[in-house]
Amino acid sequence: MKTLRKRPLLAIALLLASGLSRAADFDAGLTALQHGWATAYYEAPEAQKKPAFEKLVAAADDLLARYPGQAEVLTWHAIVLSSAAKFSGGLHALGQAKQARDELLKAEQIDATTLGGSVYTSLGSLYANVPGWPIGFGSKDKAEAFLQKALVINPAGIDPNFFYAELLAARGDKAAARRSYEKALAAAPRPGREDADAGRRAEINAGLRKLGG
Q1: Do residues 114 and 100 lie in contact, with contact meaning Cβ atoms separated by under 8 Å?
Q2: Angstrom distance (rounded) from CA 72 to CA 96
Q3: Do residues 80 and 60 lie in contact, with contact meaning Cβ atoms separated by under 8 Å?
Q4: pLDDT tens for residues 114-153?
Q5: Which CATH architecture has domain 2-154?
Q6: Residues 6+ apart with CB under 8 A from 26
Q7: pTM to 2 decimals?
Q8: What pLDDT digit, counting tens, does each position of 192-210 carry?
Q9: Burial environment of residue 158 by CB neighbours within 10 A (0 to 12, 13 to 18, 19 or more)
Q10: Contact, 143 vs 167, CB < 8 A?
Q11: What are the distances in angstroms from CA 34 to CA 19, 79, 142, 196?
Q12: Domain segments of the chain: what residues?
């Protein structure tokens, strides 16, 4: 009887251990992508950014293959792809941007609020920076709509405020752009994302300098 009782307990223990191991693998993979992105985007020399992102895309592909239905992984896979597109250029870049858009829209259907509204922040950035018709799908109006959604979810976030400031600056609204840059600069630090925060603040300060006095 004692042996029979132990077997269900052992099975439960093994299931719990398996679940914890999978959760740890998921967290480690996502963290690796986040730090890899910050290193490739902000620290790698210009000539090394393209190969750095090619390696990061492969790592993101691997994580997405293991966790295909996770909104967080879809979002980060799309972020890596859209950043890779920035440094690859040509038709391949447009293909990567389209794939990133489609993955973000899929992530939206799973959990639109994941990662503090990063789905909408990333969609806003994509639509703001991709060329418009007939070359691409870019649209400043759609970019603004997505960024407004991101700001509803994360009104004080560094990323949505930064990208909204960039959009406002591109439209020539310097006063509003300055307010959004300053709000982004005042955002609370993100634990574990210190490298990304430092790079983003450098971009914010560069944007403020472009606006002039």
Answers
A1: no
A2: 18
A3: yes
A4: 999 999 999 999 999 999 998 899 999 999 999 999 999 9
A5: Alpha Horseshoe (1.25)
A6: 67, 70, 73
A7: 0.88
A8: 999 999 999 999 999 999 9
A9: buried
A10: yes
A11: 23, 10, 26, 8
A12: 2-154
